[in-house]
């Protein structure tokens, strides 16, 4: 039920005063003309609800849609239930409809004929695949060295950290490069193959230009130097879904740790200085216990598996 407003209470007081002392005195006391008071007296039926202000919305308009136009809209909507506003308007105009698209939109809203847009299919993340042995899959990525870390001779240069991490043992190999290219990625891959004491079956990367050309402008992309090296070594190349870095989660997380524990405090005066500090940082990483490994370091996890066939002793 609608609530009683202050205006309704005011009109009730006005009418009761007019009934008791007359319309003229009521007009003087309440500062209204006599016609206003007579109008509410005619409407008053003894209940305060009769003093509610009625809607002033017009019941019709000189330019409103005709019955034939409304029938055409309903018939066309029944034949084109999912057509968008513009397409639907064009189809109506082809059948003699002359109203504007905004006028059509208002009618569709009023008649509840706007089609419901189907929701986009929800993306269901694939369950993470646990690796069973070292080398089953290795994640590779490139990290740009923050410019705030470069001082002295290195202040106007750009350095890059190439990272490879084994998904099973978290054992990691880092290398410093002065170039961000497929050639550098290929050279890094050769270093990784020599550095890892196990055979690599699969390498997973993002869709960067240093790894693949599949997101480039070419209709028939060729293999990059990095991919040709993989093919020569008999290693499978797996690329993650575009713009989804979480699929390369282990290497991305390791880069976040690099930011927190290495780049936040390190300064590099030359490329050789960067290489030496990066090598020491990688050794610390591989020898640091990790919770996902049962508080065992990546190096020890790898050693236990290669020697004893288990991840712990």
UniProtKB/TrEMBL annotation:
Tell me where on the tree of life, at the top rank, the source sits.
Answer: Bacteria
In the record, biological process GO terms are:
DNA integration
Which intervals hold domain Integrase catalytic?
Answer: 130-306
Q: Which Pfam families match?
A: rve
Q: Which GO terms describe its molecular function?
A: nucleic acid binding
Q: Which Gene3D superfamilies match?
A: Ribonuclease H-like superfamily/Ribonuclease H
* UniProt cross-references to InterPro entries, sorted A to Z: Homeodomain-like_sf, Integrase_cat-core, RNaseH-like_sf, RNaseH_sf
Per its UniProt record, what PANTHER family does this chain match?
A: INTEGRASE PROTEIN (PTHR35004:SF7), TRANSPOSASE RV3428C-RELATED (PTHR35004)
Q: Could you tell me what this protein is called?
A: Transposase
């Amino acid at each position: 039920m609608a609530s009683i407003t202050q205006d309704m209470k005011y009109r009730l007081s006005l009418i009761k005063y007019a009934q008791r002392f007359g319309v003229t005195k009521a007009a003087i006391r309440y500062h209204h003309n006599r016609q206003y008071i007579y109008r509410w007296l005619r409407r008053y039926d003894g209940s305060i609800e009769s003093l509610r202000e009625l809607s002033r919305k017009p019941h019709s308009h000189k330019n409103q849609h005709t019955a034939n136009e409304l029938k055409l809209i309903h018939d066309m909507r029944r034949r084109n239930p999912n057509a968008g506003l513009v397409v639907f308007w064009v189809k109506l105009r082809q059948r003699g409809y002359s109203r504007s698209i905004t006028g059509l939109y208002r009618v569709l809203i009023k008649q509840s004929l706007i089609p419901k847009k189907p929701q986009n299919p929800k993306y269901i993340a694939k369950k993470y695949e646990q690796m069973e042995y070292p080398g089953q899959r290795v994640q590779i990525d490139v990290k740009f060295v923050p410019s705030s870390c470069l001082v002295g001779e290195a202040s106007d240069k750009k350095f890059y950290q190439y990272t490879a991490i084994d998904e099973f043992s978290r054992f990691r190999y880092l290398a410093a490069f002065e170039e961000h290219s497929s050639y550098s990625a290929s050279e890094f891959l050769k270093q990784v193959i020599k550095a890892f004491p196990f055979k690599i079956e699969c390498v997973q990367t993002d869709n960067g230009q240093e790894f693949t050309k599949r997101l480039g402008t070419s209709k028939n992309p060729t293999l990059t130097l990095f991919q040709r090296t993989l093919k020569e070594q008999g290693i499978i190349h797996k690329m993650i879904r575009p713009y989804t870095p979480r699929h390369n989660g282990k290497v991305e997380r390791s880069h976040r740790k690099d930011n927190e524990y290495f780049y936040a405090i390190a300064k590099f005066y030359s490329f050789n200085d960067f290489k030496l500090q990066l090598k020491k940082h990688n050794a610390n990483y591989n020898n640091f216990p990790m919770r996902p490994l049962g508080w065992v370091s990546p190096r020890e996890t790898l050693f236990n598996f290669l020697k004893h066939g288990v991840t712990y002793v």
